[in-house]
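Researcher:
Attend to token order:
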Amino acid sequence: MLVVNSNEGKFQFRLKRNIFTSRYKPIDNTEIMERLLDAFALHTRVEFKISNEMMLLNIPDHSMAFTIRNEKMVPGSHFSNSEVGLVAYSCSVFYQRLICTNGLISADAIAVKTRHIKRNALDDFNATMDEVRRMAMEQEGRMRLSIESKVDLPQASIASFGRRFGLTKDEIQEVQNAWEHEPGDTLWSVIQAFTYAARGSHLSAEQSYRFQRTGGMILSLVR
């Protein structure tokens, strides 16, 4: 079985479904996990959060690790799903900063994203995994550019990005507090503040997802 590293207790699925339309066909979290058992080696260690509304799952692949500014980055696969329609089922590229296990969900390296009205969302699962691995190395250049991009007012930039991507005032404050753990005047430091904030054990799966996703959205702006 997959080894789950969860901040929210035991590995449980509490099913809660609302019918939004007659076409709505929820994708079970358990069905996704069954596919993962076939796609990954036994005892694979993952990052996992779940609530009644959302499942968040990140699987680092240490065989694809690369180094940026003497820090090891580990790409991997990200899965998110909501059985009640909060988000669409998606599989995309995930990056973990190994020194502090900050995680970032790529905003534009998405192998699969599908609404729950489709029946074939989990078809060709192995091909999806191959596509994630292919895309995983493509963000390295943007990460290097973000390190070189100076930011005059990091805290103000965090607030601006937070508002732009729909975070609440309290969530923006969480990110600003996270920046103080490792302050810096580059765009990379701003991105890391969002991903560091996502580690909070008090956060819901939805909040962790928003923080990691916002970090990926900021990175996608780098050209």
In short: The longest strand covers residues 102-114. Residues 91 and 217 are 16 Å apart (CA to CA).
